[in-house]
């Protein structure tokens, strides 16, 4: 009996030693396979026509990496810090492909963020899918997630959603002000982004029983818009929903003023042409009252967002733009996916398929990523879109872009209708 | 006589060596897709600039419309593939024919009304922009939204998951472009083009039908650029009016000029050096200081133009002549 007891003790001790050795060994193996730093790529247009957006996006990503590393890196992977590598994608599919291939072959990142322009994103996503590198995209054209890419995720609200949001905002504001809005004019510049926005606005208008009395797709480098402004006035549109970039936004706003044919409201969608700090500076007091959808909410009152807005403003001189905000929360969402991958797949957390699974498993309702995201829910569907993404709307009030929609998150009351409306 | 023959043999051997290197490059680069894409891109510019040499170098017409023909070729091949599942192997030939037909339509009135020098440059530059606007508005074929070609993995669709097949296609086109240049150089048409490139009025006085010569050069150049466009569309996987790119057209002309106008291999040499340098600078410093690589690239370009206004190919011509003339002298002394 006694001998038997001793034998059992020996067996138990032996088993414990074997188990401990196995654990130590497996831990050592995991520790050995993990790198000292996790490389993340930034692919943005830093030269060419879209350089202003790419540069802002880069600053947003840099700040996010800095904040994540300050907060202790990727906790579930033993606090590994992130390392950012950047390449300029230029403005053609050729340069975007070269930059993507170059960055991936030289640095082997686990994920890349960027490319802002849809055609550049499409060109690059062929490569990221082939190389199984996660692409956190900031291009908003609907088609970006319609091409069956497996490793592409887009947290921000897509373009059609922005168009719909602009219509819904105007109708909500009109209802609050007790004004009837029945006729809408829809304008967009002639890119796939402009058209995606316009399609969302058309759908939003039709769903809400509005009559589209004027619709126009114009060249992005248009120099004279007086015929369009006359056309809108002739059609007696109650309000205009418009997707402009920088230059066309300025030309339209000045022409509305010069011709004195200003409808009850002019709402921008996508591209933030009317509320970008550069546009406000260029337009001066003409910018007053213009609104635009935004894929980021700079007024969200959370500690992480306040920190971002404060540091970005100190660095750049104005509040974070849409491109900066989208990439700042994009980086934080990637961080959360890495954390989840570390927890779900401790044996191989940086494996692209495991990281992809982690992205699909994400269901964030709190934490720094959610604190900077426009809504309080981040998750991804099979296509890589976030079904809970929603645009916010900023309006220029006293020379400052202020969040006015969704009404429950508004920084201030919107000015509605326009004070200078002429019909 | 014997020395001339020896030089000819040496030249042929040199070209053969270069060809062997070009053929084995993808195998040397192996699985590094970036490097293969880079050399394919260099070859693409090499093809474009070598073809530009026919109209810009030999005929002396400052053509800034290469991407108009490339876009036409890309749209023809791409649209036929998307709409009718028509193979790009044939589509690219039709693309070339469309580009050549369009060049003919433009070229006849241009040369008839003696549009030349800066006016020719401005007209061809405007052509690219006009086509861009037309294709953006032409919803049935173009429109502002990208039109994607069928996905990877099909020889019939000319869609490959690796860049290596595109590399060989570009290499094939480059050999054709060099061959056409070489052939034209040796024919009567080549002499006529060179003459009118030097002084058009003097050439006319000598009885050369300059209009017909320029038209032939333009059609030849635009056809092959159109064919290149077919491959270009398949390599990038979509068609879009942004293919009609004025800046890129100017870049092709710059490569042709910097390489050495009228020298067959000059534009290729410029493409190898300048596109390589630009990409090296972009990849190494482009992410740190925005636009700095473009400044450095421009300075290099200015230096080249200042010190070698006749083109960088003349450096190689000088070196070649020095080496072989010395060998000839040494041989004579020994005899």
Task: Explain this structure.
The complex is a heterodimer of chains A (423) and B (335). With 423 residues, chain A is α/β, with parallel strands linked by helices. In chain A, 47% of the residues lie in helices and 16% in strands. In chain A, helix 6 (192-207) links the parallel strand 6 and strand 7 (211-218). The longest helix of chain A is centred in the first third of the chain and has 32 residues, at 2-33. Chain A is elongated. Chain A starts with a helix and ends in an 18-residue tail after the last strand. The radius of gyration of chain B is 21 Å and the shape is globular. Chain B is built from 13 helices and 2 strands, in the order αααααβααααβαααα. Chain B is mostly helical. Chains A and B meet through strand 2, helix 3, helix 4 and helix 6 of A and helix 2, helix 5 and helix 11 of B.
Explain briefly what this protein structure is.
The complex is a heterodimer of chains A (423) and B (335). Chain A has 423 residues and is α/β, with parallel strands linked by helices.
Secondary structure elements and their pairing?
The complex is a heterodimer of chains A (about 425) and B (about 325).
Chain A: H1 2-33, E1 38-44, H2 51-70, E2 82-88, H3 93-107, E3 111-114, H4 118-131, E4 134-137, E5 152-153, H5 159-177, E6 183-189, H6 192-207, E7 211-218, H7 226-234, E8 239-243, H8 246-259, E9 265-268, H9 277-283, E10 291-294, H10 303-316, H11 322-344, H12 352-361, E11 363-364, H13 368-372, E12 378-379, E13 392-397, E14 400-405
Parallel strand pairs in A: 1-2, 1-3, 3-4, 4-5, 6-7, 6-8, 8-9, 9-10
Antiparallel strand pairs in A: 10-13, 11-12, 13-14
Helix pairs in contact in A: 2-11, 3-4, 5-6, 8-9, 11-12
Chain B: H1 2-29, H2 33-58, H3 66-84, H4 88-112, H5 118-137, E1 147-148, H6 164-186, H7 188-198, H8 200-205, H9 210-236, E2 238-239, H10 246-259, H11 266-285, H12 292-307, H13 313-334
Antiparallel strand pairs in B: 1-2
Helix pairs in contact in B: 2-6, 2-9, 2-10, 2-11, 3-4, 3-9, 4-9, 6-7, 6-9, 7-9, 10-11, 11-12
